[in-house]
Amino acid sequence: MGTSKGNRAKGRSSPGRWSAAAGAVGLVFLSQFPAAGDAAEGLHWEEPVEIASGNAYRGPWRMNESNFDFVDDPAVAVEGEDLIGIVWADNSAQDIYFQSFNAAGEPRMEEPVTISHSPAIFSWLPRAVFADADTVLVVWQEIVFSGGSHGGEIFFARSGDGGERFSEPENLSNTTAGAAKGRLTRDMWDNGSLDIATGPGDDVYVVWTEYEGALRFRRSEDGGRNFSEAVEIVPEEAGTPARGPSLAVSPDGEVFLAWTAGEDSAADIYVARSDDRGGSFGEARRVNASDGHSDAPSIALDGDGVLHVAYGESPRGIRQQYHLRYARSRDGGETFEDSRQIVSHDAHGGYAVHYPRLAVSGNDRVYLNWEHFPEPFPRPRGLGIRYSDDGGETFADPALVDGTADPDLGFSGSQQGLLMRKLAVDAAGNPVLVNSTFRENTGSRIWLHRGRSGEED
User: Fold this and answer.
1) How many Cβ atoms are within 10 Å of 41's Cβ, its own excluded?
2) Which domains does the chain have, with CATH numbers?
3) pLDDT score for 418
4) What is the pTM of this model?
5) Phi-psi region of 37 (alpha: psi -120 to 50; beta: other; left: phi over 0)
6) DSSP state, 429?
7) Which terminus of the chain is less hemmed in, N or C, by CB atoms within 10 Å?
């Protein structure tokens, strides 16, 4: 497909989220939603940093021959107080890129580094983690058509020099079942239904779902150099497809895995725990039973071992008006407190809020980020934020993150799916966010947003 024709300077990108999603939708002004600096006292935002840019064209879907020319799919990881890693996709080049930044938003490398090295195949929705300041681990979805009804494989690469060079990509899934598809119905899904986490020592964990329904898990005990055989957590024959996995790992090596289901308007969130560093998992526990569709879970562990869970809930079923719910477990995922609504579906005049992401710092500070839908699906505009300073007992008012809802930028990404890791928190307790924006025939961009807790300077 050749190189992109946009003014990219720093990046590259990807396509469509609800399987048949196509085209851009009109701009909506979000004046009813206050800026985070106004609503969330004690949390302030630096000026957004543009990480990558490109054109904004998306032609008809023709598999890997599609004419897509835009940057998209960012994910963020942090290490300590002064190391931010960002991965994203460039659909024109059909590759994944990595760049690292310091806390001031300054790039540490002269140019982004290519990871996927597959210019004839779309590479989508990466996630990255730091094992330490030198070791970067990246997993993503490669749209390989290997004989099944849907294209998709899980690829992995590692860097031992801070992201200057990455290993040859390794296919972790080797399936015809359509890996990293988070199916809602036969005709609707989110790509990027995968996650990665690190544990004690050199442990690395990767999980994904498949279009055909299964939820699979692999672990490495040597920093990603070798992986165990895939374990089937939810089988294809389960009746409903698994969707939206999320991982959290304790310092002692307890691995927590959450997921939900598609094709079930009353799906609930489940959490399973492994006490042997991912060697096996116990019985899955339901977070909260409801008649609505519980979707897109995000889990995180705090310094006291409390497991925090956030998810979207649509009382009227799949892809309706989602609000966000939140719950905690204080006994290792055996039981959960009653979930509570933490952001309403019509927050500040919007249609829905969905796709929550959690991040915690220490024992007390909990951040919640989400996609804001000012009108019905499929495209969000703006990222929402709430935080707690008392371990999730109370939260500051919800607000839009400064600079994420500018109408001139168009809608937010990803266009391939919104099961993403846009939120992280540094060692000082400051939130770090990434986002992509797309305005048809005008421009696409990847953004870094850095929050600062405490009094404004």
Assistant:
1) 10
2) 36-453 (2.120.10.10)
3) 97
4) 0.91
5) alpha
6) S
7) C
